[in-house]
Amino acid sequence: MDLALQPEHFRFHEELVRYLNSIDCEAAHLEYEEDPYRIRDAGKAFLRRLGADGWLGIDWPVESGGRGESSIYQWLFLEELSYRGLPWGGLTTTSIGPVIAKMGTTQQQAEFLTPILRGELLIAVGYSEADAGTDLAALRTRAVPDGDGYVISGAKLWTTTADTCTHVWLAARTGSVESRHRGVSIFLLPIDTPGITVRPIYTQGGERTNAVFYDEVRVGGSARIGQENRGWDAIVMQLNLERVFAHGDLRRELDRIVAWARETGALDSDELVRMTLARLAAELEVARLFSLRAALMIDEGRIPEAEASMGKVWFSELKQRIALECLDLLGPTGQFRGEAAPLGGQLERLYRASTVLKFAGGTNELQRDLIAARGLGLPR
Length: 380
Hints:
Distance between the termini: 28 Å
Order of helices and strands: HHHHHHEEEEEEEEHHHHHHH
Structural class: alpha+beta
CATH architecture of the largest domain: Up-down Bundle
Helix content: 40-55%
CATH topology of the largest domain: Butyryl-CoA Dehydrogenase, subunit A, domain 3
Number of helices: 13
CATH class of the largest domain: Mainly Alpha
Largest sheet: 4 strands, mixed
Strand order of the largest sheet: 1-4-5-8
Shape: globular
Strand content: 5-15%
Number of domains: 3
């Protein structure tokens, strides 16, 4: 597999850079820096601008309203926006929209895809539960058939963006408890549907996620994506597409540290600083290549199951290593918070925020099992 970018990729990136330099992104950036997981007023306005100018859905098929470009272009787009600290639409555009395009009815595609590409529709993912985190197939939120629709009851944890989104992508059991993977269905419903209650949970990094409660929530049959009891197919596709990570934010953090080391003279005078930053830069390049490979596999029509898990493990653990080892380089004052701290306290916050990625989107222990079984062919 050739991982070298082609001239047309560089031309696309140059076009994107010129576009972003031509518009006012400051308010969206400040909001993103405060909490990158919650797209609020400035971020939503920025997404609508991107949508109006044709920058959302770069790798979506033309018939679905996208540009019809390859996943490499989408990956370059994500890299640049994450480096600048700007929202790009999250899972709504990168993984949920493509699943709707493949599995949704014609009516669902017409209802949801265009608003997504306009930056008007944002979707939170409702998977995890108190007793069904890593073992998602053990979920207990139920969707009981009722006339031509369903009544949904249960509770979800870690539904990030539920407080700022317009819709929720919900996994609920429509089969028996024993059916596990074969008894799960996916629903897409407005977050303001009567019976839904959203309560905040704050992480140690200061970001907000949510607990969401469903109290006899009534939805029509058209809210179900795909066939009843076949939602696991949609979940697997969505998760694999989710794990093509952008690493721009980590490049930005490492660039800040290099700039600090250069300004303070540590880069020239301290061999430990030089060796640490050089090694972390090399490890960041490995993370970039993991994501690039996954994007190329998607372009070839393959699902990067083991490869996506490999990238997820490496990226999440690298983020914590960068925070921890660079905090050591800053010394005790690196643990301070606030603007007066070295680098504005950004590394201290990065360290607190980095731990969540080891279990968000699937625990790293489970990812290693997937790598062993699907990548190396080892027995489960």
